[in-house]
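Please, structure for the following, as tokens.
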Amino acid sequence: MKHILLMVPIGLGVGLATVSSGLVRALENQGLKVCFLNPVTHDRGGGEKICTESALANVEKPLPIQCVESLLSQGEEGLVLEFLVAHYAHHAKDADIVVIQGIISTQLRGYAPQLNFDIAQAIDAEVIFVIAQGKNTPAMLSEQVEIAAQPYGGVGNLKALGCMINKVGAPVDKYGNARIDLFDPIEKIEDTTDAMSRCAIFKKKNFRLLGCFPWERRLMALRVKDIQKHLGARVISEGKMNENRVMHLAFAAATVENMVKVLKPDTMVVTSGDRSDAIVAACLAYLNGTNLAALVLSGGHLPGENTQKLCEEAKKKGLPILSVQTDSLRTAISLENLNIEVPEDDEERQELVKEFVARNIDKKWIEELGATHPQRYLSPPAFRYKLIEKAQKARRKIVLPEGEDPRILRAAATCARRKIAKIVLLGNREKVERLAEEHQVPLGEWVEIIDPCTVREKYVAPLVELRKHKGVTEKDAYEYLSDEVMLGTMMLATGDVDGLVAGATHTTAHTILPALKVIKTKPDTKLVSSVFFMCLPSQVLVYGDCAVNQNPTAQELADIAIQSADSAERFGIPARVAMISYSTGKSGTGADVEKVKEATRLAKEKRPDLIIDGPLQY
């Protein structure tokens, strides 16, 4: 099976998208076919969006964050996870490895850590934690990773592969956030990469430092157009605004003689728009080969006509000139808050960053990923997704005999709305419609309401024919068909519907007895058994038999095991059968233990193709 890697951020500003894309590049460089998914869009532009069925149905596109929050607020976490499973299944069919970007936590997004954990379980993903060094010492970083890994079973869990540390040695503000100091022409960064690699947490078994990415100022260089957008600056001359990158910032407040000292390549010069001397000096420096990044005129002032004429050659050569309304001080304060993340349209910087990250990822681990195939488990959301997908393709008609129960109405509406099946509700039409209105349940065109009184006559003769060996008369048949479960079963027996679901208001015995009478078992089957699909947090198990056969013999228990295995396989769950008892192997004695031993032997004889073990203590 393919590796599914979920990138989980620890904290804010860790550069999750950057690290994720770099990992994809490293895997692609290894010749692997990689699918990268960012299943939730975080852009809130364009106003609030309403979460509709169409948003959930379109599995090609990511789910808007507003939709996620709306569903979570309604307690519909299951729908969110089912969408994410469907989104994954749609895109990842042919991939060798899938990389999924986790949800980024913010002050307004406190649910993110829990949702990341739920996503990991839903798609049975292996987890890679991403953290930025910030102000953390190696010991502090180890503690943070330990805490983040606890919900996933701790750092010793095989699903927790390791950690990637970003922005190692970066200059940080008082909150520990990485920043780029444009005022300092040379940032002196302490190389702490080795210290990070010696964190105590990476000495633990099965948990590795998968990547360590030192701070590289050249990779942080923003384009002039990015800063123009940040400042909301007016473009006087576009020049090479889309190409030039800003490495340094200089404020021309001194005399021209002193100003010349700061006119270095890749510098953005900020000066008041009425400082003609500084403006001309910057333009002359540019014409003489000093490749300034840009010239920003502050205070809302523009130079006079004569000064502008002197700047024409510099403009023609490509010097970007911008104008802002704020004075130089406020402009400087604004530039302190630059977003250093890579913009989506900056392909050049994206490429540099991807290659840089890829080079600093553990190459041995990348090779191991391509050569190994982890065992996968089917989670409840994945199980539901597979069931719904099959049902939508099959387009079957299902009868629900308990049509006057509000719970059944809600289930019918859901099935119809999601086109899981065409539904037939048995019940008094007036009562069903009144209940649907009272409980605000829109039934839709895929739901058909049939009053039993109007169709009962149709099934009298077929029932008499099926039960004539038992001496059933027309009068008896009328009486039997007054039971909606029997009526629904006859609809199934005659092919008017494809299936029946009941048990909300009827017992298990009441539900299956009509089927045993009129549909019967397969010719080679001696008993009927049941299974429960137990949706545990991380996987689905099949338990049989917990409802029909109370005290089966060894032979019957063997048949139940085989039937349960076949049911599991039909529903996409690999069959590995555990014959459970109150002891394991030969550790216990007694009639029940001997029965399970014999049942295990018989089941293995009948189906040597199945993996069967027992007795196993439970």
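The radius of gyration is 34 Å. Residues 45-49, 185-189 have pLDDT under 50 and may be disordered.
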